[in-house]
Amino acid sequence: MALTRGFTGRSRGARDSRLPPGQYDAGTNWPVLHVEPTPSIDTATWSFEIDGLVDKPVRWSWDEIHALPASRYEGAIHCVTTWSKFGMRFDGVSVDTLLDVAGVGDDAAFALARSHTGYTTNFPLEDLTGGKAWVVWDIDGAPLASIHGGPARLLVPHLYFWKSAKWVSGLTLFAEDQRGFWEQRGYHYRGDPWLEQRYQGD
Amino acid sequence: MTTVSGGPPHPGPWQPARVTGIRRETPTAKTFTLTLPQPRSFWAGQYFVVRLTAPDGYRAQRSYSIASAPSDSAEVDLTVEILPGGEVSGFLNEAVEVGDVLDVRGPIGGDFAWDLRPALGLAGGSGIVPLMSMLRHARKLGQPGLFRLVVSVRSPEELYYAAEIQGPDASIVFTRAVPDGHVRPPGRLMARELAAALDGDRDVYVCGSTAFCDAATQLAAAAGVPVERIRVERFGFSG
Question: Which residues of A131-168 are buried (b: 16+ CB within 10 A; e: fewer)?
Fold first, then answer.
């Protein structure tokens, strides 16, 4: 590994063990990164749908999804652009709950999440099950702002945050992996921050 | 009309790039000319990641937009703004000298990469960097009308590439203080200014702070640009 002349880093000896490699603590800032204009989505017409290799496709309205058992995530999020944030509290519904309603098909092994903006991102199904993924609409007890993906976004906090699709509108289950928006553009298929899977080949 | 086929190039492996030029743009920004061992083709609007490594193995990496026009050469210019408390941007601006070697990887970024369709760039402050690459590319192709740039900055002291930017394809909006002899009074970009710059069928590329991007996106949409033809890159404290 090539050393950078003169560089010692800011935080010698005090590196936070909660930070994955190459990440820094953004503190109270929440940087905003997306390439499409921020949409304005009306919860009166909002919907979330699960289809593909399921027993029956299901579509939830805003009120219907709120009637499902609530689930909370408290912890860190990690963005591929190297910031992390700690102590985040998101409320919504577990993806496990949604998949239970639809019924996961025998051949389903991958999922493609999509957004109301047309954004997509892909997953091995096991990254969305077992209490690891949510559809969330509240942050610290307040509605999630549109700029951060509101009214509802996917939350998959054990992977880099581009996987947590803003303005999420649905999941499609497949037998084979389908590449999403950033995954077609040189980013890693899976995006585990602890393995520093930022770009293809990492 | 110039066209390109396929999509923007994907990143290659990490490369040790030599710093072969440093130019100060403003009191808080410098442009670094990097010479790559292996030239990488790129599209305007893409970026590189710069990675710093300390003797104990600690690493920090940040993304910086390419400012230079696409070319076959091994040189690529990155303009880096010092951000408050920015570990990497501060080191680059204050410690790096010509002759130093930096680990870089790129080009990265797809949706903000310019495909050479007629376009208008709306830049807020340091958000000019990827749009300057587009302006330079259009000029280099001998098609200066292919890309038009409107840049919004607070004052003349904060304008990057000031000497080069002047031309019929570029206009500057000063929001707080104007240079001597400047006719337009200070103020934010106005709808009619944007409409004049659109002059027909153009994609719109917006880059700057979140506040600038939201305002500029709304202006463009109000001027009749379909939302799917507006691309936005938000610059923030990522560094």
Answer: ebbbbbbbbeeeebeeeebbbbbbbbbbbbbbbbbbbb
pLDDT tens for residues A53-93?
A: 999 999 999 999 999 999 999 999 998 888 899 999 999 99
Neighbours of A200 (CB within 10 A): 13
Rounded to an integer, what distance in angstroms lies between the CA atom of residue A195 and that of residue B117?
Answer: 38
CA distances from B83 to A168, B42, B61, B190, B197 (A): 32, 26, 14, 28, 31
Could you count the other beta carbons within 10 Å of the beta carbon of residue A73? 20
B167 interfaces chain A, CB cutoff of 8 Å: no
Restricting to B residues 77-106, those with a Cβ less than 8 Å away from any Cβ of A are: 87, 91, 95-96, 100-103, 105
ipTM, two decimals: 0.77
Q: Domain tally for chain B?
A: 2
Tokens of A110: 């991958």
Mark which residues 13-72 of B lie under 8 Å from A by CB.
13, 16, 51-63
A36/B232 CB distance under 8 A: yes
CB B188 within 8 A of CB B175: yes
Count of all residues that appear for chain A in the document: 202
Rounded to 5 degrees, φ, ψ at A35 are -100, -5
Residues B128, B203 within the same domain: yes
Q: Are residues B72 and B137 in the same domain?
A: no
Domain membership of residue A117 as a residue range: 41-195
Both B230 and B136 in a single domain?
yes
Indicate the pTM of the whole model.
0.69
Q: Taking residues B183-196, report their average pLDDT.
A: 88
* CB atoms closer than 10 angstroms to residue B164: 12
